[in-house]
Amino acid sequence: MPQAGDKAPGFSLPDQSGATVSLSQFKGRHVVLYFYPKDATPGCTTEACDFRDEHSALVKAGAVVLGVSPDSVASHQKFATKQGLPFSLLADPEHALADAYGVWGEKSLYGRKFMGLIRATFLIGPEGKVVRVWPKVKVAGHVAEVLATLQQPSGAAPAPKAPAAKKAPATVTKPAAVKKPAAKKAPAKAPAAKKAPAKAPARKGTRA
């Protein structure tokens, strides 16, 4: 099964009017390629009618809708006419396109296993690459999700909102220590003044 970013397998198949429809015709536009098991069955009818009801909005969003099933051109014509479907239904009776997109496989119903088409939708971008895949589609709400995806600026899946980042706790910093002013050195003491030498006592004169 092609994944987002892969080149979409090309095709050329007849639609309900017998006209050949090719993927290359829609270069520059989004293509909603939806695979469904069988015309006129309950789930497939609901899905087709949901695409019909949102068709104008899908076209406004820049998309082409193409349905694909193993039914014949005649079956598609009857189904499209009865339900008033405004888009092409491609006949893939040999399930060659289903094989190319990986949606032909083993299914199970009431305990019985058989090979059949697995309901899936591929959103193909303007450059021919797969933008998004919905494997094993549940019909309820599916078309609304496809439309919401197309209405995103990139045509990709709406990105989940990231949780708000927690604020980092404020870092407590110690205040810079205030340097004490250096103690002033006491001025050097002046050297003590030298004492003058004591005068010798005067000698008494000698008698003659």
Walkthrough of the structure:
This protein is an alpha/beta fold. 21% of the residues lie in helices and 22% in strands. It is built from 5 helices and 9 strands; from the N terminus they run E-E-E-H-H-E-H-E-H-E-E-E-E-H. Strand 8 and strand 9 form a beta hairpin. Residues 157-178 and 204-208 have low confidence and may be disordered.
Brief account:
The protein is α/β, with parallel strands linked by helices. The protein has helices at residues 42-53, 55-60, 73-83, 96-100, 142-150, and strands at residues 12-14, 20-22, 30-35, 63-69, 88-91, 104-109, 112-117, 120-124, 130-134. The model is unreliable at 157-178 and 204-208 (pLDDT under 50).
CATH architecture of the domain at 32-150: 3-Layer(aba) Sandwich
Order of helices and strands: EEEHHEHEHEEEEH
Radius of gyration: 46 Å
CATH class of the domain at 32-150: Alpha Beta
CATH homologous superfamily designation of the domain at 32-150: Glutaredoxin
* SSE class: alpha/beta
The strand count comes to 9
Main beta-sheet annotation: 5 strands, mixed
Strand order of the largest sheet: 5-4-3-8-9
Q: Give the helix tally.
A: 5
> How far from one another are the termini?
154 Å
Mean pLDDT: 84
Shape estimate: globular
What's the CATH topology name of the domain at 32-150? Glutaredoxin
Beta fraction: 15-25%
